[in-house]
Amino acid sequence: MKKIKHEAQLLKKALQIGEQYAAKRGFTSFDDGTSNKIKIECIYRLLVDDKIIVPLASDKEDGPNMKHKLVLWIQKQLPEGHALLAD
């Protein structure tokens, strides 16, 4: 898995956009005490269920790979020239 520049910030943005997407789909928002690990898994599974992202192989479905998948997803969603996409 290749390290992506600004990965932490991209993940934060992916969680923010993913929560907004989930709310539009009718899901209640996460509690303040909900860990990022749970948020990552829930948003990943929602995006896979809605066929927005391709699921990981079952033996690769773990925290770091889900994070990476969300980062790749948000990179494609951000407009060209966005500050987080700059090299």
UniProtKB/TrEMBL annotation:
Pfam family for this entry, one: DUF5062
Name of the featured protein: DUF5062 domain-containing protein
Organism of derivation: Enterovibrio norvegicus FF-454
